[in-house]
Amino acid sequence: MARKIEVLGSGCPKCKQTLKIIETAIQELGINAVVEKVQDIDEIISRGVVATPAVAIDGKVVLSGKIPTLDEAKALLSK
Length: 79
Description:
alpha+beta; globular
């Protein structure tokens, strides 16, 4: 079953960069995953995120308020 990876943010450059890093990490790890962008501010706030970009894996926010490095993204996705 594919994992659900969400990048939460307004669509700013930092959010776009985070999305690219997550997609690269998924490719390099060969993970079966679906990546979605969540840009609805009400949805982001309802998840308890106060700083974007944020990353959620299978519904759980695992990173907030910073752009992950490729290694950080791989570590998050490998858990």
